[in-house]
Amino acid sequence: MGFLVMILTAVVVVHVYLWRRLVRASTTPGSRLRRVLTWTLVVLAALMVVTMAGSRLFGMETVRVVAWPGYLWLALMFYLFVFGLVAEVPRAIAAFALARGRRAAAGTPPEDRAQDGPDGGPGTGAVDAVPVDASVLACPAAVESSAVSGSAAPVAVSGSAARGSATAGRPAGGGPGAGAPAIDRRLFISRTASAVVAAGALATVGYGVTRALGDPVIERVPVRLPRLDPRMSGLRIAAVSDIHLGPLTGRGHTERIVRMINGLQADVVTIVGDLVDGTVAELGRLATPLRSLESRYGAYFVTGNHEYYTAEGPQEWIEELRSLGVRPLRNERVEITHGGAVLDLAGVNDLNGLPFGDGPDIGRALGGRDANRPVVLLAHQPVQVAQAAAHGVDLQLSGHTHGGQMAPFNLLVPLQQPVVAGLASVPRAGGGDTQVYVTRGAGYWGPPVRVGAPPEITLIELRA
């Protein structure tokens, strides 16, 4: 419930901002365009809330209907907001220049304005030095009435004054009503800024969709482990995380990932959490291609936070993966023998399992092993590397971050996780370092959009 409240609050705040900047500032009050755009924003906001809460409140079938437009609007809304914030700077500069021009116009001496013609040249003459009632100039009909009744002295009015009478009620200079041209300029500035913001957001989301739905990038990463037996040098571990089988993915998504992993001819295949966003009943058919994974020493899986978001919990997926030939590592380890040498491959549950009594237990996973052997740990979240270093782990493989998925989210990830993507090291208390590699994930969560963080399948090659 707390998550839904946070999402609803963010949706309301961002949509109010977009309405103020993209709708109200770019349309005239009471116009049909303003009404249409306002209601469009309201409908899109409601659609997005239904999309994000739908699987919990309405079921997967409802989400399948609204997911594509809902999640695409989420991405577009985000980049409209980002580009809108960036546009605040030039918008403020333009508004300042416009206000300064109006103040300068208001300070022009009256006699200079009277002598200027329409094209800025000499005027057509001045009013005779005869007192004239301002109400007469404001109402041409009064001139005729005075002339007929003879109640007023003849008044000589110049051509420029006559033109002034035709614009009654629009005082000169900076007084009230003099800002009509300036209002047009403000509207032009707002519409130009809105057009640039919209174009930038649409182009960014379009690019991000092509990256998210395209083939994952193969990252080949050599990792040197000081304790690795030279006979094991060259062992290849394929790592993939955050596949996120869900309402926007089909069976082809899994088949492509399996095909690409098999093409690497890895010795070990590891799936480092966040495989699914739903139950076995809803998504089981999408996972069946995992049965075709090929490797010399087997395929292994650890839970991610999303495995704990379904009402059934992760256990049904644990059993499903076993039936597909993928071995879950539940706070446990296996020995990988290669070239006559041995390496420990351990896996721990995700931190989100703690409230369910199913959290990570590195001590249990590593208990009783030969401390002289190197150990590779599978742990979904990079933040778990602190415990891994305390237990002397040589290498941790993680996912979870998606590399930020949609920049500039990558700038926010370090607030929670020590590594956004790639290889890093954490000092161990007893000397040496624990290395951690964070893969960007092969899928996406929410919007099918990736900007600055293409999907990834990683091939780790261990070297002595």
Domains (count): 2
Beta content comes to 5-15%
- CATH-scheme architecture of the largest domain: 4-Layer Sandwich
The low-confidence runs, each spanning 5 or more residues with pLDDT under 50, are 113-180
Radius of gyration: 34 Å
Q: What is the overall shape?
A: elongated
Q: Which series of helices and strands comes N to C?
A: HHHHHHHHEEHEHEHEEEHEHEEEE
Content-based structural category: alpha/beta
Question: Gap between N and C termini, in Å?
Answer: 49 Å
CATH class of the largest domain: Alpha Beta
The portion of residues assigned to helices is 40-55%
Largest sheet: 6 strands, mixed
- Average pLDDT rating: 85
CATH homologous superfamily identity of the largest domain: Metallo-dependent phosphatases
Would you tell me which CATH topology of the largest domain applies?
Answer: Purple Acid Phosphatase, chain A, domain 2
Count the beta strands.
12
SS summary, helix count: 13
Strand ordering within the main sheet: 1-12-2-3-4-5
Describe this structure in words.
By secondary structure, this protein is an alpha/beta fold. The protein folds into two domains: 2-105 and 180-206, no CATH class; 218-463, 4-Layer Sandwich (Purple Acid Phosphatase, chain A, domain 2). It is 43% helix and 14% strand. The protein has 13 helices and twelve strands. It has helices at 2-23, 32-57, 60-106, 110-115, 134-138, 140-149, 159-165, 180-213, 251-263, 280-287, 315-323, 362-366, 385-390; strands at 217-224, 236-240, 268-272, 299-302, 326-328, 332-338, 341-347, 375-378, 395-398, 422-427, 433-438, 456-463. A six-stranded mixed β-sheet has the order 1-12-2-3-4-5. A six-stranded mixed β-sheet has the order 6-7-8-9-11-10.
